[in-house]
Amino acid sequence: MLKTLTLLMRGAIADSAQAVDDAHAIAILRQQIRDAAAALAGARRELGVAMAYHAAELRAVRGLESRIATISDAARKALVDGRDDLGHEAAVLIAGLEDERIAQQAEATRFATEVDGLTSQVARAQYRLRDLDRGLQTARATEAVRRATVKSRRVMTTSTSALGEAESTLARLRSRQQDDEDIHEALASLEADAAGSLQHRLATAGYDRPRTDPKDVFERLKALA
To answer: Which InterPro entries match (predicted)?
Structure first.
């Protein structure tokens, strides 16, 4: 039981952490890109330092080669003049300079290798960083579209519900208005029927308005003839 509860707690914590990551994925990605850019800037500085050391070693090698050439030329002239003593001293100095040149050349070669490696790493990192920047822009645009779509769906759901309610209200209003019209027509019909019935009863009882007798009209016309 305890093991099950422990697993449930760990699962809940993991789910919560994942939910936080998902909810803030854009912000997390943006910060990760900033961290990567800072690391890349540091790597570029290291590359610059390595290139400076390499250039310094190359200058040192060229300086030693120049000294060796100068001393060698002077020693040859001394030997021509029979100054073997100076020739021996020059040989000792040249040997030391050549050993130093070999050591400096080895350092220059090592720095060249480091520079090449750092240059490749920086180039790859710059490419990956640009790819991440493009991915971030795409992700932000996609997220904006997703949020707009979700919001639009919510609005449409609310709008659909409101439209349905409005249509129901309109239907009830029309029904009530139709009922009112039917009642009005029924009352008018009843009033007309009542008026016609009353007029008929009055006429039957002899209380209707007097009508012109055709015989009276005939006698009047005959008298005028």
So the answer is: PspA_VIPP1
**Within 10 Å of residue 25's Cβ, how many Cβ atoms?**
12
- With CA atoms as reference, report the closest residue to 72 among 103, 33, 64: 64
Give pLDDT tens digits for 176-187: 777 666 666 666
CA dihedral 197, 201, 202, 208 (to 10 degrees): 80
Torsion angle, alpha carbons of 42, 44, 50, 53, to 10:
-100
The closest of 127, 116, 132, 181 to 30, measured between CA atoms, is 132
Length of the chain: 225
Banded model confidence at residue 128, pLDDT cuts 50, 70, 90: confident
Model pTM above 0.85: no
Dist. CA 108–CA 104, nearest whole Å: 6
Whole-Å CA distances, 60 to 71, 91, 195 = 16, 20, 132
Q: By the 8 A CB rule, do 58 and 108 touch?
A: yes
